[in-house]
Structures are given as structure tokens and as C-alpha cells.
Task: inverse folding
């Protein structure tokens, strides 16, 4: 696919680069202002906590998707299948393995899905869109075959109570997302693995020539996403107490949208996990504002799509201005 | 000597993958089902393949040009509801033309976002997918629109020369026309150049942007045609009909052999991919194979085909190099940026 | 090399064509071959176009259908629309083209099946509809309908809320996936009943939660933020989404007790009704639905007359009769 966005924004403090860095926080502030205007109950602690909580689970997936985007892996379309597998196995295995082991098993199954993706895309160099489309179809089909059409119910457990609980007024799910973001942000920006991802996405051949383990890096991004998708499924299953194979539907789109709105290019070479967190918050704000504003929920796609065009358009514009023409 | 033969055989098998696939389907089909291999089945397969087929056909030049169009499903839905909703207002045929027009219009929107705002087609069409899917729901209040003249569209799925129906004949004709354009006209050949290396094409005097605009218009037109044909055949304009069709369309194109990376592809290959997928689905349905098992087989098939393709034609290195070069308009080296 | 390749291609194409033409003579499939004994259906084939292969409600219905077919010695081929009426319309065309002996159809919208039904009528293939009715013109071409109506479920839910709220108050609707046939019917039945009965219940908001618990949870949190104690009643179009609302309510710590009505008769809903957090649910027996539908179709194939509507009860389950009933899923 020919990308028409060109050079990365440089560290020079041109207005363009500055705007690019601030675009996400500015967007969030703008949405907060809109929210305050349209509803008196918007700027309350409980509502803002709800906003953070709304996309906490899918936010984990978006974090992984950041690595996928940064290394030039475009997108992982097998996310719904990995989320579903994580959720179904977590609850389904409880009866013979106990809640903790079952959750671990759920994570494991989803990670295996990620490993398959990694092998196909990283080592066999297969187009990521097709590969993840294929593996996702296989995994989701398998999950439906296993469940045979029913609903999988979970048993009450201390683990479930923990996931559903709060700590210092913030829900545990939000804490988990925060911890994950705190760990993964420096992983991308400061560790070798992170630098490899940026290198691979920026210029595959040059990275290879510089002895970067390109295949391992690309594979790693997909394994990470599989793991995080599984974690998302595990958490959702435990907090809802039941699961069906449709549980992850649409999550790949939410994750990709969050990455894109956050300013990371899907073609790789630049990006940051923190930006994606901003994107996750923005998508959660959109959903919240639509309901508080009394708009029909069918309008969500319209608003999200429009924001994507505006956000990415502005970003591209300033990058072209700030970078070399 | 023997190793060389094996490689050559492998290459041939991959090249004629579609034929191999069709033969396998035919064999399995005729073993498991009485009367599977008959003119009726062929007619049925072609007829069912039409709607996905038009989507896949429209996608082909877009992919050849190195772009992608994810919004084709939403275009289908919009065209479908336009066609049916306008029937009582302007008449059956004008309404169908209006449906086509809506397809071209959304294609133009895609083209504008990609060429004017310089947003990548992946992101741009992801956005328009969301926008127009949402718009379709809002315009129809989430309800399917019933046709005021359901009889009008019925002949579309009637008999035509035993193996065709009017709509499948249109599909095959469109595929052939596109093949002629891509293979035998200068503009068709230029499209491949644009997809392989946009910068080089530009320096050779080809107006890449114009070609890219054209492919989005074509994709919109064909997706519109798919929507018009489907809505007329079912006498219903559904706001969600297109949502499930994107994946089968992409699958068919990939099975046919067109690459997602650009620079290569063929509408006949897409036709073959669509028919092969349709025949496979038919065979599964005749055997009562559940949808989730079909998904497993199709997913495995997709991965096997694409893996074979990669193994046989090398590790794809040249493709990724042209991909890199095609992305950057000016050949300045890219630095590695880190952001906190 | 090129010449050899071309010959291979030409030969294969010719072989394919020859086979196709050979099949031409036996084309037409096993049409409704007239046997002398109109009463026997052994060995005949029924094409069952179902809504899904893997779904908590549809799967037991499919199993019921299979059981009834096996009992009668009829071959049942199940194809799934996967909730797309467009796919179903095409499958209907395919089944008719194959010349099966009977068709059981699960309609997902009003008109998409009309062309296929017209063809079925032309070929003399009887069609029975299961679970959902379809448009008037289409129903005229269908021998019988077996099921409890989704539209009816919406209507009953409205009546339940009327009863619970004593005729007035604010309510919210947590609807299924926008554009989905079930959602349209259950919302339509509900809204039409409110209007028809001149109800003073006020619909504060309707949100789409795609029959998914997590989506319902997120939307419910926002609804509670916006409306708080104005919410006196909740209509959730299935029990899974009802659970999502209950979760949100518990989280919010608001001291309100809105009446929540759901549909489907899920295990979780039964527990909620017993615990007093849900007002009622509606069950219809899926297995019996499938069984009865096939039995009705077989009766038609045998030449017997059947009722146009074979209704299945929509059973309302609330605190009073929850112990006397079994969850449907």
C-alpha cells in the first residue's frame, strides 16, 4: 500500500512538531470542554472514572496494536478471536482448573495465537492483513465449535471480585491499563526491543543491515498483541461473569482507531504508547459524549470517522510542513 | 535435477492455484453430493458470486495501484438503500442509476481524502467505512427499506443461457472488460507502474494521482453496482448488508492471487478467486458444514495459499523494497525517531 | 514451454466443460420426484435455512429440528445465514435450484426472501417459516409459521413495564444491534404497544448495545450518569444486556430500584429474578420450536393440512413463577 504521509516529525521545535506533540492532549481538552457544555453531569468524578473504565479492557489491545503499527505490521485483525479465546477458556476451564489456572490458560491460548501470527508475519514475511485475517477466522471458528452455541458462565471467585473491584476509587481494570501503559511506554521508547521496532518500521532493509533481529522483532509485536488481547478477554470474562464468542467483536477497529487518532502511523517508524493511551481516552470520550448528548448511538461511527480524518489530516499536514518536502 | 522439477511443479501448482482449487472442490463435491457437478450448480455458484464478485473486482485496480479500499461494504449499503428508497420517487431505473451515482460519490470522497489530504488509503477508507456505515443506519433509522416494486428486480436472478443469470452475466462481462483494460490499454499498464513505484512512474510522466483517483472512483462504482444488484434482487435496501461483505471480498481477491502490496494483479484472477470461493461455499453448504467450520477451512486455505505464494516466489524482498520506495516521494533517508 | 502450458490450460478447460455438459443431462437435482405413496417422506430432503450455527437460542432450535428430522427419516441439510438476510435470500435461491423436497426458513427481515419464495412456489417446494414472521407478501407464499414472535416479545415487555411502573415514569431502552432483525422486531413491538395503549411511560433514551454485556455495561453507566433517579424502568432486549445494566447500577451505588425487564430466559436472569434485581424475562422454548417446525413441514410434505400459524408460547417469568420454570439457556 502506498502511504502518502512522508517524513517523520523531527525533534526541531517548529510549530508543526510542537502541534503534533500536543495534538492529542489538545483534542482531549477540547472534548472535555464540549462535554462540560452539553451536560452538567459530565465533569463529575464518577463520570470521568466511567470514561477511563469504558475502554480499559480494549485499551490493552490498543497498546499492543501500537507495537504492531510501529514495526510496520499494519494491523492485527485476529484480535477478536484472541479476546474470545482468552475469555472463553478463562471461564470454561474454571470447573477443572480453578480460577487462577484457568485465567492463565486463557492467556496462554491467546498468546499461542499471537505466536502463530508472529511466525507467519515475522518469519515467513506474509502480509499481516491476510495472515491475521486467516488466523483470526480459524481461531474464532474453533472457539465457536468448542462452545457449541452456548453461553459460558463463570463461577464467583476471589479473582473475579478483585477484577471487579476498585482501589483508591479507581477501578482495578483502569489500574491494570495504567500499569501496562507505564511498563510498555519505556519499552517502546527506551529498550532495545522498542528501538528495533522503530527501526524495522522505519526502514526494514537498513535495520537488517544494522544487525537488528528484524524477524524476531516483527514477530514479537504480534505475540505481544496476542497476549494483550488474551488479557483483555480474561479480564472481561472475569468481570462480566459470562462470555460468548462474540465478546471481542469490533475490538480490532477500536484499537486501530485509538492508535491512529493518537498519532502513530500504521506504516511504522514512529509512534508512542502514551499517544495511544490518549487515543483510547478520546474514543471513550466520544462514546460517553454521544450518550450524554442524547445523540443516537448509531452516530458513533460518523463522529469517530470524522475525528480520524481531522486528526490524521492535521497531523499529516504539520508533518509535511515540519519535515522535508 | 529432481529438485528443480519439484520446484517447477510447485511453481506451476501455485500459478494455477485456482484451477487446482476448482478441481479439488469439484472432486469433493461430486463424491459427497449427487448432481453437484451440473449446470444448475454452476449457474447457482456464478449467481451467488455476483455481489461479492463486483466488490472484489472493484478492489482489484485499487490494490494494483498500491492502495486499499476498506469502505466498499459501506458503499454497498449506501447504494442499496438509495436504490430502493428512491424507487417511488424517480422510478426504478433512475433509482438504480442513483445508487451507482452514490457509489461513485463516496469513491470520490475516498479519493479526495487520500490525494488532497494525503492521508494513507488504509486510514482514509477505515474512516469512511465508519462514517458511511453510520450514515446508512441514521438515514434509515436502522431499518431495512422495503421496495415499493419488488417484482422489478426479480428477473435479475432468472435464467440466462442456462449457466448465467442476468446479474452474473453482468459480473463476468465486467471482469472481462476490466481484463481488457488492464492488459491491453496504455492506461491499464500505467496502473501497474503506479502501483509498483509511484515515484518512478511520476518521473516517467505518469500522473499517479489521477490514476489513484480513478481507482477509487472505479471501486466506488463497482461497490455501488454490487449494492444496486443486491438490493434489487432482494427487493430490500439494508443499511447493514455491506458490513459482512468486506472480508469475503478481500479473501476472494487474495485467493485469486492479487497481491495486497501493489503492482500486480488481474481481474480474471479475481474472477477465478470469487468463483472458487463460491464453489467452495456451495460445496460446504450442500454438505451442511456449519459456518464456523467453513471459517476454519477458509482461514487455513488463505494461509496455505499465501504461504505457498511466498515460498515459491522468493521471500518477497523485492516487493517490500518497492513498497518502501513507493511510499516515499523524495528519496531522503528516514531517521529513527523516538517519542516518549 | 508457453505452448505446453497453453495446451494444459486448454485441455483442463475442455475437460471441465465436458464434465459440465455430462452433468447437464442429470441436472435439475433430486426434484420433488413424485412417488406413488404421498404419505411417505423417508429419504426426502429438507433444506433448513437457519439464523446461525452457534448461538445460545438458535443452536437448541437447530438441534430440535435435527431430532425431528431424524425421527422421521428425513435428510436435513442445515445452512446458516449468520444473521444476514441477504445471505439467507441467496441460500433460499440455492435450495430451490437444487430441488429439495421442503424448505424450513428462518426469516430475518420482511422482504429479502420474496423472490426466492416466488421461485419455490413455482417449483412446488413447500416452505415453512420458523421463529420470526416476515412481510405480508412473503407470508402469503409460506405454508405455515411456527414460533413465538419477537415483535410479540417487545409488546409483552411494554405491558410488563406498564404493570410494574403503574403506568408512568421514565424508562430507558437497551436495544440490540442496530439494523438486526431481532432488534427491529423487539423495539418495534415495544414502541407500538406503548403508543397503542396510550401509555404515559416516557422513553428517556434508547442505546444500542449489540446484545453484548460489556457494551451494555458501558452504555448503562452513561445512562445512569445522565438520568440517575429518573430511570424508573429498563427494557433490555436480552438478558445479557439486562445483566450489564444491573452491573452498572451496582457500581454506581445509586439508591434506586428501577424495574428491569429482559428477554431470553437465561440462567443469569433467573438468578436475578430470584434475588429481586430483575423484574421479569420472557422465555420461548428453542428446542421445541425447531422440533415443531420440522414436524409441521413434514406434515405439509405429506399432503396434510396445517394451521397457518402454530404459535409457541412466549412465557413471562417473574418472581411469582420463577421456581416453576427452567432457564432456556
Result:
Amino acid at each position: 500500500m502506498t502511504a502518502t504521509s512522508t517524513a517523520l516529525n523531527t525533534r526541531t521545535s517548529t510549530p508543526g512538531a510542537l502541534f503534533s506533540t500536543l495534538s492529542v492532549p489538545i483534542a482531549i481538552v477540547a472534548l472535555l470542554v464540549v462535554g462540560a457544555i452539553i451536560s452538567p453531569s459530565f465533569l463529575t468524578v464518577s463520570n470521568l472514572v466511567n470514561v477511563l473504565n469504558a475502554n480499559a479492557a480494549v485499551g490493552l489491545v490498543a497498546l499492543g496494536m501500537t507495537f504492531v503499527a510501529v514495526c510496520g505490521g499494519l494491523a492485527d485483525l485476529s484480535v477478536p478471536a484472541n479476546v474470545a479465546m482468552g475469555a472463553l477458556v478463562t471461564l470454561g476451564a474454571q470447573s477443572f482448573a480453578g480460577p487462577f489456572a484457568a485465567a492463565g490458560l486463557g492467556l496462554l491460548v491467546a498468546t499461542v495465537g499471537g505466536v502463530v501470527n508472529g511466525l507467519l508475519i515475522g518469519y515467513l514475511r506474509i502480509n499481516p492483513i491476510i495472515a491475521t485475517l486467516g488466523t483470526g477466522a480459524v481461531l474464532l471458528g474453533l472457539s465457536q465449535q468448542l462452545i457449541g452455541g452456548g453461553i459460558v458462565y463463570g463461577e464467583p471467585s476471589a479473582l473475579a471480585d478483585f477484577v471487579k473491584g476498585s482501589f483508591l476509587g479507581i477501578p482495578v481494570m483502569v489500574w491494570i491499563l495504567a500499569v501496562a501503559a507505564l511498563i510498555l511506554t519505556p519499552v517502546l521508547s527506551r529498550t532495545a526491543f522498542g528501538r528495533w521496532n522503530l527501526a524495522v518500521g522505519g526502514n526494514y532493509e537498513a535495520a537488517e543491515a544494522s544487525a537488528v533481529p528484524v524477524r524476531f522483532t516483527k514477530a514479537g509485536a504480534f505475540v505481544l498483541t496476542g497476549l494483550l488481547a488474551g488479557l483483555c478477554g480474561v479480564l472481561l470474562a472475569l468481570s462480566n461473569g459470562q462470555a460468548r464468542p462474540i465478546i471481542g467483536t469490533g475490538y480490532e477497529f477500536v484499537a486501530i482507531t485509538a492508535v491512529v487518532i493518537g498519532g502513530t502511523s500504521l506504516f511504522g517508524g514512529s509512534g508512542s504508547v502514551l499517544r495511544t493511551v490518549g487515543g483510547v481516552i478520546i474514543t471513550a470520550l466520544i462514546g460517553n459524549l454521544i450518550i450524554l448528548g442524547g445523540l443516537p448511538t448509531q452516530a458513533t461511527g460518523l463522529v469517530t470517522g470524522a475525528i480520524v480524518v481531522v486528526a490524521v489530516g492535521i497531523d499529516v499536514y504539520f508533518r509535511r510542513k515540519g519535515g522535508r518536502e | 535435477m529432481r529438485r528443480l522439477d519439484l520446484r517447477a511443479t510447485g511453481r506451476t501448482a501455485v500459478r494455477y492455484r485456482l484451477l487446482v482449487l476448482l478441481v479439488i472442490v469439484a472432486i469433493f463435491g461430486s463424491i459427497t453430493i449427487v448432481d453437484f457437478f451440473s449446470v444448475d450448480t454452476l449457474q447457482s455458484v456464478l449467481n451467488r458470486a455476483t455481489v461479492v464478485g463486483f466488490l472484489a473486482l472493484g478492489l482489484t485496480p485499487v490494490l494494483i495501484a498500491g492502495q486499499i479500499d476498506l469502505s466498499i461494504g459501506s458503499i454497498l449499503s449506501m447504494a442499496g438503500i438509495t436504490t430502493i428508497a428512491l424507487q417511488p420517487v424517480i422510478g426504478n431505473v433512475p433509482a438504480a442509476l442513483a445508487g451507482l451515482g452514490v457509489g461513485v460519490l463516496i469513491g470520490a470522497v475516498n479519493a479526495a481524502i487520500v490525494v488532497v489530504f494525503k492521508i494513507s488509503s488504509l486510514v482514509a477508507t477505515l474512516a469512511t467505512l465508519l462514517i458511511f456505515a453510520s450514515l446508512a443506519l441514521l438515514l434509515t433509522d436502522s431499518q431495512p427499506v422495503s421496495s415499493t416494486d419488488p417484482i422489478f428486480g426479480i428477473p435479475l436472478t432468472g435464467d440466462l443461457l442456462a449457466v448465467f443469470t442476468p446479474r452474473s452475466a453482468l459480473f463476468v462481462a465486467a471482469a472481462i472488460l476490466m481484463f481488457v483494460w488492464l492488459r491491453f490499454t496504455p492506461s491499464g499498464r500505467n496502473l501497474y507502474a503506479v502501483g509498483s513505484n509511484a515515484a518512478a512512474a511520476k518521473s516517467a510522466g505518469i500522473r499517479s494521482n489521477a490514476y489513484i483517483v480513478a481507482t477509487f472512483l472505479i471501486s466506488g462504482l463497482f461497490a455501488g453496482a454490487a449494492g444496486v444488484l443486491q438490493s434489487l434482487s432482494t427487493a430490500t435496501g439494508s443499511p447493514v448488508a455491506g458490513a459482512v461483505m468486506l472480508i469475503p471480498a478481500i479473501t476472494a481477491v487474495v485467493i485469486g492471487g492479487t497481491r495486497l502490496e501493489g503492482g500486480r494483479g488481474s481481474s480474471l484472477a479475481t474472477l477465478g478467486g470469487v468463483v472458487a470461493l463460491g464453489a467452495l461455499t456451495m460445496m460446504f453448504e450442500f454438505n451442511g458444514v456449519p459456518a464456523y467450520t467453513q471459517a476454519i477451512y477458509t482461514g487455513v486455505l488463505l494461509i496455505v495459499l499465501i504461504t505457498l505464494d511466498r515460498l515459491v516466489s522468493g521471500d518477497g524482498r523485492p516487493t517490500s523494497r518497492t513498497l518502501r520506495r513507493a511510499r516515499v516521494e523524495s528519496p531522503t533517508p528516514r531517521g529513527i525517531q523516538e517519542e516518549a | 514451454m508457453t505452448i505446453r502450458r497453453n495446451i494444459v490450460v486448454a485441455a483442463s478447460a475442455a475437460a471441465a466443460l465436458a464434465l459440465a455438459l455430462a452433468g447437464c443431462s442429470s441436472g435439475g437435482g433430486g426434484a420433488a420426484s413424485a412417488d406413488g405413496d404421498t404419505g411417505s417422506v423417508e429419504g426426502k430432503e429438507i433444506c433448513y435455512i437457519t439464523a446461525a450455527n452457534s448461538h445460545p437460542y438458535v443452536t437448541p432450535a437447530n438441534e430440535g429440528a435435527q431430532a425431528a428430522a431424524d425421527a422421521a427419516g428425513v435428510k436435513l441439510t442445515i445452512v446458516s445465514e449468520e444473521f444476514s438476510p441477504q445471505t439467507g435470500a441467496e441460500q433460499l435461491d440455492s435450495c430451490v435450484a437444487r430441488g429439495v423436497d421442503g424448505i424450513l426458513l428462518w426469516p430475518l427481515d420482511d422482504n429479502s426472501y420474496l423472490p426466492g419464495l416466488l421461485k419455490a412456489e413455482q417449483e412446488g417446494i413447500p416452505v415453512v417459516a420458523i421463529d420470526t414472521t416476515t412481510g405480508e407478501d412473503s407470508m402469503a407464499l409460506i405454508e405455515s409459521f411456527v414460533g413465538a414472535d419477537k415483535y410479540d416479545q417487545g409488546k409483552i415487555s411494554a405491558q410488563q413495564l406498564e404493570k410494574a411502573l403503574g403506568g408512568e415514569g421514565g424508562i430507558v431502552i437497551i436495544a440490540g444491534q442496530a439494523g438486526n432483525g431481532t432488534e427491529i422486531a423487539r423495539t418495534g413491538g415495544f414502541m407500538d404497544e406503548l403508543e397503542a395503549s396510550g401509555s404515559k411511560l416516557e422513553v428517556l433514551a434508547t442505546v444500542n448495545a449489540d446484545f453484548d454485556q460489556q457494551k451494555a455495561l458501558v452504555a448503562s453507566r452513561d445512562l445512569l450518569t445522565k438520568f440517575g433517579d429518573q430511570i424508573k424502568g429498563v427494557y433490555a432486549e436480552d438478558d445479557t444486556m439486562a445483566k450489564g445494566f444491573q452491573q452498572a447500577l451496582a457500581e454506581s451505588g445509586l439508591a434506586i430500584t428501577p424495574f428491569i425487564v429482559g428477554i431470553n430466559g437465561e440462567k443469569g436472569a433467573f438468578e436475578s429474578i430470584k434475588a429481586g434485581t430483575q423484574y421479569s424475562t420472557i422465555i420461548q422454548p428453542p428446542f421445541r420450536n425447531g422440533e415443531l417446525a420440522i414436524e409441521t413441514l413434514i406434515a405439509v410434505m405429506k399432503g396434510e393440512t396445517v394451521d397457518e400459524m402454530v404459535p409457541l408460547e412466549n412465557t413471562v417469568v417473574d418472581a411469582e413463577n420463577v421456581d416453576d420454570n427452567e432457564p432456556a439457556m
User: Anything to note?
Assistant: Chain A touches chain B through 76 residues (CB under 8 Å). Chain A has one domain: 27-322. The longest strand of chain A covers residues 152-153.
